[in-house]
Structure formats: structure tokens, C-alpha cells
Amino acid sequence: MEGGYAHGYAASKWAGELLLRELHARFRAPVRVFRCGLILPHRHAPGQFNAPDLLSRLLTSVLATGLAPHSFYAAGGHPHFDGLPVDFVAAALVALSSADRTGGATYQVSNPHRRDRVSLDTFMDWVASAGYPLERIADHATWLSAFRDRLQALPAPLRQRSALPILELWARPIPAGPEARVDGRRFGRAVALRRPGGEPGIPHLDEAYLHRYLADLAARAGIGPVSPASAVSAVSAVSAVSP
To answer: 28, 143, 175, 223: which could form a disulfide with 69 (CB 3.0–4.6 Å)?
Structure first.
């Protein structure tokens, strides 16, 4: 099938939804469809992550090259990263699927916390605060070219873990306007009502969570540990180039 990253995967999910809708329409079977954004590592299981997914590849590549753009996003709008930890997603799917065994429903399993402004750019700040050397390049095209060159120069095992095969995803700044949002209000209301895993609502992504994720990625990729002193200097370097 022609197309870009994961088009075949998306098409298979669309076909699956059509079959489930037909099942519900013809036989009144209870159906729950969960449309998930990016599913992130477990919050309480260190070392467990999906190495080939786009975020793991991107973060591994940033750690290995020390390069990031000034911003991953196009000007305007409010950048936000739509991802949730797998332990929360799993608990929510179980709770919402078992709560009502009649009818049909579709949920957009999304992270609604746009006001916290946690985005890929925030992740880069947290890369620096974890102590990894990081240079932020103002011009997106210049960053992409330098990033590609450094990725291609990596040892083969690390290059295979990198973002090189899917680099077109970041060839241009990501739109961050309202058109990039999904409507997760139904999911948010259901989570607030059912409290999966005892949580009162959808969790925020935070710095401590990303730091552990980065440490796991670095350990798997053989990227050396960082020291508290280097963390301080890295944060200072990022502050010098950030607006």
C-alpha cells in the first residue's frame, strides 16, 4: 500500500471499526471502539517501552546527536503532545468496556491537557534538565539537515534505533492549530465518572516521567549516563538559546 508512516496500520484500524459497526447494527452486540493517540511507557515499570515507535526513535536520536530544533511546531496555535501512559490507557479501556455491556460507543483516547503546554518542545527542555547535551537550532531546515547527517554517521545498531527511517515526519514544522485537535470530551467524562485505577482524571505528563523514559532509552541505546554537574550546564545552555 502506498502512503507514509503507518498508513497501512491506520487503514486496518478503519476497516476494523467498519466491521464492528456492522456487528452492532446487525446483531445489537455491545461494541466499544477506543481510538488511541500515542501510547507511552508504563509509569511504574522501568525499562519497558516500545523501542520502534516514533517518540522512542525521536528521543533516542536527540540523545545520540545532541540536536533539536528551536521548535518542532509551526508558528501560531498552542503546541501539545497527545500521549498517555499505557498503564492508564489499559485501566481506562477495562473500566469503560465493563461498565456498560449494551449499545455502542466510540472514545477518542486523548490527552486533553492543552493548558499545561506539554509538547515536544517541552520534552526537549526536559532532555536538557536531565543533563544530556543539547543544541537547539533556530532554522528548521538547517536542523533537519544536520540531524540527518549525524544520524547517518551513527554506528549501525544505534542508527537502526533512530528516527532516520521516519525522518519525513519532522521534515516540516508540525501544525499546532485547532485543526490538529481531536475531540476527547466523551472519553474525559467517562474517565471522571468511572475513575479507572482509582485516578480522578486523565493524568498529565511530567518532567520526572520523561526523565525516567530518557534514562531507559539511553541505557538500551548504550548512551552514557549524565552527571548532576552536566545537567546544570545543559540547562544553562538551553536557557541561553531559548526565547
So the answer is: 143
Task: Output helix, strand, coil percentages for the chain, rounded to the nearest 5.
Answer: 55, 10, 35
List, for residues 227-236, the tens digit of each pLDDT value.
Answer: 444 433 433 3
Dist. CA 109–CA 206, nearest whole Å: 19
Amino acid at 170: W
Q: CATH number of the domain that 99 lies in?
A: 3.40.50.720
Beta bridge partners of 170: none
Please give the Cα distance from 98 to 92 (Å, whole number).
10
Q: Tell me, yes or no, whether 2 lies in a domain.
A: no
Length of the chain: 243
- Separation between Cα atoms, residue 36 and residue 82, nearest integer Å: 9
Residue 109's domain spans which residues?
Answer: 7-241
**Considering only CA atoms, which of 97, 116, 98, 115 is closest in space to residue 107?**
97
